[in-house]
Design brief:
Layout: E1 6-8, H1 17-26, E2 32-34, H2 48-56, E3 62-65, E4 91-94, H3 106-122, E5 128-131, H4 145-162
Parallel strand pairs: 1-2, 2-3, 3-4, 4-5
Helix pairs in contact: 1-2, 3-4
């Protein structure tokens, strides 16, 4: 798959961090990846998968995965010292995203900030983030995709501005996804 530029699989496949690592390593020039599955009750994908795509897919621009950051190990930010982030990634979409009970709790705020830190460290030029329109609530409390996506966007924006990024170049609001 060394020449593959688009990978779009919307089948009920049980992806794991390990299988996604194999995909990332096999597709070094891929530009768009969409691997949303609809298997939320069997979720095995963590923020570690974002790290693998950031490290191995240097042309990647648009990443859409089924991710649960609340089960992510806290080493998702561990990257080689020389890694400056994958600057080609502009858009990231999570199909499923669950931070525990709503409304916001201290634990959910912690995961929001951690997810924002991971996104900012791995994808320093990120311009858009959102939840998939297909998010469901099988076995989980339904989330407000716009409100909770906005929390992550705001946290990423603060990190980008703190790094000195020009305000015109920071991540856009939820409703501007299609303009990126």
């Amino acid at each position: 798959f060394e020449r593959l530029t688009t990978l779009h699989i919307l089948l009920p496949i049980l992806w794991t961090d390990a299988t996604l690592a194999s995909v990332a390593q096999a597709c070094p020039v891929v530009k768009r990846i969409d691997l949303r599955t609809g298997l939320e009750q069997q979720l095995k994908v963590t923020l570690i998968s974002l790290r693998v795509f950031a490290l191995h897919c240097h042309a990647l621009q648009d990443l859409r995965l089924y991710v649960d950051p609340t089960v992510s190990p806290l080493d998702a930010l561990e990257v080689p010292l020389t890694f400056e982030g994958n600057k080609s990634v502009l858009k990231v979409m999570f199909e499923q995203f669950y931070f525990g009970p709503w409304p916001w709790t201290p634990e959910s705020i912690l995961w929001t900030k951690y997810t924002a830190s991971v996104l900012d460290r791995l994808f320093p030029e990120l311009k858009a983030f959102k939840f998939s329109d297909s998010v469901s609530n099988v076995g989980m409390q339904k989330i407000d995709k716009e409100e909770n996506g906005t929390e992550i966007i705001e946290a990423v924006r603060k990190l980008q501005l703190a790094r000195g990024r020009d305000p015109v170049d920071v991540i856009v609001d939820f409703d501007k996804w299609d303009s990126v």
